[in-house]
Every structure is written in structure tokens, then in C-alpha cells.
TrEMBL record:
The keyword Zinc does not apply. PROSITE patterns: HTH_MARR_2. InterPro entries: HTH_MarR-typ, WH-like_DNA-bd_sf, WH_DNA-bd_sf. The keyword Acyltransferase does not apply. SUPFAM superfamilies: Winged helix' DNA-binding domain. It holds the Pfam family MarR_2. This is HTH marR-type domain-containing protein.
Amino acid sequence: MSRKTALRIKILSNELNRKVAELLKEDGEPSSGIQMRILNFIHRKNHDSAPVYQKDIEQEFDIRRSTASGILQRMEKRAFIERQSCKEDNRLKAIFLTAAGQQKVKENINKLENFDDLLIKDIPEEELTIFFQLLEKLSENSKKINIDKGGN
């Protein structure tokens, strides 16, 4: 059997990303999957008492300023977020979740937890333990690999 470890991990990652995007998508809106991921990101940052700015979202999701701006405007229109001027610099707007945004995040978390439960269904705990140990080792090995400019 040909292993092609990195390729198989990439294929599984793509598969899972598509399923999660489908799971979080709502009302058939094409950008709602990314909106839901951004809501979850804001929730995590706000939960850690860290302010969130548009530039943070641009960096986290590797999207252009105009894309982030459009997504945030749609989220504001849906009353999921609000932007507040910073005391130190009025040009900066911190992004916070509204009550509706908090509710949507709770729904997302429930959906993702159910998805995870279905994903590991019928896999014995011992195998899951080994799987996570292997993932950690693969990650460690990947970080140790130095690839020169020649592709080696």
C-alpha cells in the first residue's frame, strides 16, 4: 500500500473543511461559512479579553481588506457584531459580538461538537489515543523538516 502520508492528510483536511463549511452555512448564503468561522474567532478572542480588529481577521483568515470589510458589514447588518471606537485611537474599531452573535456561536459550538461526535463514532478510545499521539508526532516531525530552495 502506498502511504503518501501528507497527501492523505491533505485530502482528509479538505474533506473535513468542506463538511464544516457546509455544517456552518446557513440560509444558503455563499459567505456564511466564513462568517460563522469569523464569529467563532471573535468569540474566542473576546473570551480571552483580547480586542479584535479587522486587521486581526484579515491575518487569521488570510483575506484581503475589502473581503473582510464586506463580511463584517454583512455580519453587522445581521446584528451579530458591533464595532466600537477605541479610546486610544478613534480610527481603530474593536469588534464585539452582540447577544445574537453570542447565540449564533453557541449554536455553532453545538453543531461542531455533534459533528466531532459523529466523526469519531465507533472508534475505540484506545485507537483515538494512538491517533492523537501519531498526529502529535507527525506535527513534531513536520516542524523538524528543513526544505532547501531546491525542493529537498
